[in-house]
Description:
The protein is α+β, with helices and mostly antiparallel strands. The protein is built from seven helices and six strands; from the N terminus they run αββααβααβαββα. It folds into two domains: 2-46; 56-203, Muramoyl-pentapeptide Carboxypeptidase, domain 2 (2-Layer Sandwich). 43% of the residues lie in helices and 11% in strands. The strands form two sheets. Strands 3-4-6-5 form a four-stranded antiparallel sheet. Strands 1-2 form a two-stranded antiparallel ribbon. Strand 5 and strand 6 form a beta hairpin. 24% of the residues are buried.
Amino acid sequence: xLVVVVAIAAAxxxxxxxxxxxxxxxxxxxxxxxxxxxGELNGALRPRTRxxxxxxxxxxxxxxxxxxxxxxxxxxxxxxxxxxxxxxAAVDAAVDGVALFVDSGWRSPAYQQHxxxxxxxxxxSEQEAVRWVATPNTxxxxxxxxxxxxxxxxxxxxxxxxxxxxxxxxxxxxPWHYELRxxxxxxxxxxMYADPTHDPRMQQ
Length: 204
């Protein structure tokens, strides 16, 4: 009988120790997690994957941003010649009571890839998505050479007056997408592509 009691006590003691050890490990992992350190899994260090949120630093543009917003990377990182043309146009558009807002400008490759994934989800396939969103390797937004202008009164104003500043709509399906074509000042804007898939630059 004494032997049985001793065996039961030993087993209970082992379970209590294991439970305490498990609780201690969980507490240690919680502290490590709070500090941004690796956690522990089955006694081994487990690397923690960090996913940086995409935001203004990657090119997301807050609502109401104008072409004069130097503090917004999506504007400040545009090609200087394009930005200069936009600002000259904006000054003249203001005389007509029209404001040129930037819905999107420069984008990081990561942000462009994020937008492409969203477009694939929305349109059902990459083949359809690239009619609206280019890949990071081909996008003029990633190189800082394209800007999406809002609102509709601004795009209408640019449609009528943009060539004077070398600002041209490039795609027939995107009345908001403008790029700099300096030759347009003297010769007018070139014919538009139906959509980005017809643009030779997108075939890279």
